[in-house]
Automatic annotation (TrEMBL):
Gene3D superfamilies listed in its UniProt record: 3.10.50.40, Porin chaperone SurA, peptide-binding domain
GO molecular function: peptidyl-prolyl cis-trans isomerase activity
PpiC domain residues: 191-292
Region named Disordered: 363-465
Superkingdom per UniProt: Bacteria
InterPro entries: PPIase_dom_sf, PPIase_PpiC, PPIase_PpiC_CS, PrsA_foldase, Trigger_fact/SurA_dom_sf
Protein name: Peptidylprolyl isomerase
Species of provenance: Adlercreutzia equolifaciens subsp. celatus DSM 18785
Annotated Low complexity bias: 363-377, 386-427, 434-465
Amino acid sequence: MKFASFKSSALKSVGAVSLCVALGAGLVGCGGNGAGGGAVAATVNGQEIMEQTVTDYIANFRTSSSLESDEAWGEWMVANGYTPESVREEVIDYYVNQDLYDQAAKEYNVTVEQADIDAALEETKAMFESDEAFQEALEASSMTEESYIEDVIRPNLLQTKLAEAVAAQDTEGEGDDATLAQAQAMSEQFNGAKRSSHILLTAEEGEDDAALAARAQELLDQINAGEISFEDAASQYSTDTGSAANGGDVGWDALSTFVTEYQDALAGLEKDQIVAAPVKSEYGYHIIKVTDVYEVPEGGITSVDQLPTEFQEYLTYMEQSNASQNFSTWFEEYRNNAEITVNPMPEGLPYDIDLAPYEEAAAQNAEGDAAATEGTEQPSDETMSAEDQAAADAAAADAAADEAAAGEAGADAAAADEAGDAAAADQAADEAAADQTAADQAGADAAADQAAADQAAEGAEGTQQ
């Protein structure tokens, strides 16, 4: 894990809602590059990064992390695989990147307007219960509103705008043509795509599979008889609460991954058709309805307007993700072409301590833990006395009885847990999708994150693998 990731602060609201701010969020009191006197740590295309700036950065981290004492600092470095040299290297690397972003922004005529800063600040404040809660969070992170703007908001906005400028230059003259080309390339995937809704029924306590299947069939019969609409039935009876709120809608199969049984059932349905019988999967029984089918127009896709809104949003997200990746590649090349000089580490820096005592202590602790583990191992039958063997046998018998009782209790609860397992599986899938979006477009346009979240939401709990 990068030192800078430890350095980043998390603003926490009174309600325990946390906002993880971007790289460099803890640069309070560090000053800008060139701040402080003395030695030069590095130069970036002739621009100096002062040694004092690096030292202040590390000092601020130690203070905010309660690592002021040499003992705590040494133990932390050893535990996290750092040395004073590697800490300095990563902090310098951070400042090098910041300088390069600033230099590139000037080359591309990128600036951050006050209106952009104000909007970003208000967006951050809106995540807290009150302005007082926001100020408390800043204070807890050793920041002020001014330093938060200068050290977090402004750099993030600058990087976002720079990424947009680079992407605009790379795609100049393409515009909607690029989106259309992507749509045409995916026309085979889109053709025949089906949008569906489902009602998921899972076993209630004490209900066996036969009873569950009968209950699902009874509900399907009521829908077919017109006694209740599919949407109302989903809202009232589906245990997939995520889709139930939307009448059971789980989106397009071309943009989601469903369990095999569900996808196979879709293949046999046309628009507005409902399955003849409930479909069983590992999550329970699904009553499935196809609500829409997309067919590529004869002659192919000639305009993105021919696509469903969800497809258009997906293409936009893909473009933004690709732009983010392209920017990373561009910046790597930009950095490789820069003239970067890192000077040797001076002696006597306050964070440069001897790690030998802490490394030795860590090794001794590891040996002690290993010895303690070995000491808890059960002796073999050959070395146990008759009395010890009898006690062990009695303990084993008690454990077997407890295990049997637990097994009975677990069996009683298994049916009730099945629905929770399905929901948990989808929750994990949703979180993974959100994480992926963040990884693809760190610090970039929030629209991409929203598109990814919308896409992930279309996967229903209990239908996605």
